[in-house]
Design a protein that fits this description.
binds nicotinamide-adenine-dinucleotide; six-stranded parallel β-sheet; Rossmann fold; 2 domains; seven-stranded mixed β-sheet
Length: 361
């Protein structure tokens, strides 16, 4: 069986790195790669060849792969280049693109989606969402520090004392927790909000203050994800956020509700009241943004506040992001592949979750 990887369109990462490919051999598979697939994440064609992967043109990778693995889903034209009966593993986000399962079925392709792997302890080693979110949380703080016209830590110098920066984090999931840890390491004072009560202990264990807005809807049974809150709750939350955002130097927003538009937590009026020089990093920009003024993929300045809209900050660290993505993929493939072939064991809840072209989809 041949596994294919290609150069991602519009992303510097690559789905499999050479180190992982050498471990894949134990599964009895071959790997073919598009020339230059890893170049932007600092993995050369020679590195791939050294572990026995064969370099091909992009078209030939599509034509020969029994299982194509990508970070971003291939477009329609590229799906047509795949052989009928072959499989694709990618981040299809079927909870957003409701048509994707039918599309793959109509092209007689088997689809597996990383983002449908259940977020259980057993599947943690395959969880690309967590790997990438954690990197994004780290990078968000570094981006904020770079744009902030101030220090993060408290400084006592002969020329005077500098107060530590105040950082407000909205959404204390994987990205938010890593942002808290990074901001704390840089010496900032950190406050964080989340609707999930479970986040309180984690926030406090990282040395940040947890800000509660009472009356959040119960998320038990949502598989670790948050549930959509009522407009009344969100209004109260926005008022609490505003009271803190106007004192903050940095606001990092990470709040997501899977399959829905991101909750609006920082309206225009809040931005207008923030300190000049303050920075907002909005990691939810691709799903509409937590800040009303965010522009996805852009850095803008409004009323002296810098707003960075970027949902793919992990992509700015492509070498490590690719390594982690690749390791997550390897762990999933160890479960999916048996004797060199895909073993579609739908009794396995991880495979059943990831398989998006089954009868139940
Ligand atoms: P996510 O990216 O879907 O959302 C980010 C955060 O935004 C979440 O913490 C969510 O509660 C929060 N949020 C949503 N609406 C909000 C609002 N109105 N105000 C403030 N915050 C809001 O979530 P995620 O980071 O991918 O993960 C969420 C949870 O799942 C975490 O508890 C995480 O530990 C858990 N998880 C478990 C596993 C596992 O067990 N294998 C793996 C990954 C994540």
């Amino acid at each position: 069986m041949k596994i294919g990887i290609v150069k991602e369109s519009g992303d510097q990462r690559v789905a499999l790195v050479p180190e992982t490919i050498s471990k894949l051999k134990a599964l009895g598979v071959e790997v073919v790669f598009e020339k230059g697939a890893g170049a932007q994440s600092c993995y050369s064609d020679e590195d791939y060849q050294a572990v026995g992967a064969a370099s091909l043109s992009r078209k030939d990778v599509f034509a020969q792969a029994d299982l194509l693995i990508t970070i971003l889903p291939p477009d329609d034209t590229e799906l047509d280049l795949l052989r009928k009966g072959s499989a694709v593993l990618s981040q299809f986000q079927p909870f957003i693109d409701g048509e994707v399962s039918n599309k793959l079925k109509s092209k007689e392709l088997q689809g597996f989606s990383f983002d449908m792997i259940p977020r259980t302890t057993l599947a943690q080693s395959m969880d690309v969402l967590s790997s990438m979110a954690s990197m994004a949380g780290y990078r968000a703080v570094l981006e904020a520090a770079t744009h902030l016209p101030r220090y993060f830590p408290m400084m006592i110098t002969a020329a005077g004392s500098i107060k530590p920066a105040k950082v407000l984090i909205l959404g204390a999931g994987v990205a938010g927790l890593q942002a808290i840890a990074t901001a704390r390491r840089l010496g900032a004072m950190v406050e964080a909000f989340d609707t999930r009560q479970a986040a309180k202990e984690e926030v406090e264990s990282l040395g940040a203050k947890f800000v509660e807005v009472e009356g959040a809807k119960d998320d038990k049974g949502a598989g670790g994800y948050a549930v959509q809150q009522s407009e009344e709750y969100l209004q109260r939350q926005r008022a609490e956020v505003q009271a803190r955002a106007i004192k903050a130097d940095v606001v990092i927003t990470t709040a997501q509700v899977r399959g829905r538009k991101a909750p609006l937590l920082v309206p225009k009026e809040t931005v207008e009241k923030m300190k000049p020089g303050a920075v907002i990093v909005d990691l939810a920009s691709s799903t509409g943004g937590n800040c009303e003024l965010t522009k996805d993929g852009e850095v803008i300045s409004v009323h002296g506040v810098t707003i960075i809209g970027n949902s793919n900050l992990a992509g700015l660290m492509p070498q490590d992001a690719s390594l982690l993505f690749s390791n997550n993929t390897l762990n999933f493939l160890k479960m999916l592949i048996k004797d060199g072939q895909i073993n579609l064991d739908l009794g396995n809840e991880i495979i059943r979750g990831a398989f998006i072209t089954g009868d139940s989809n």
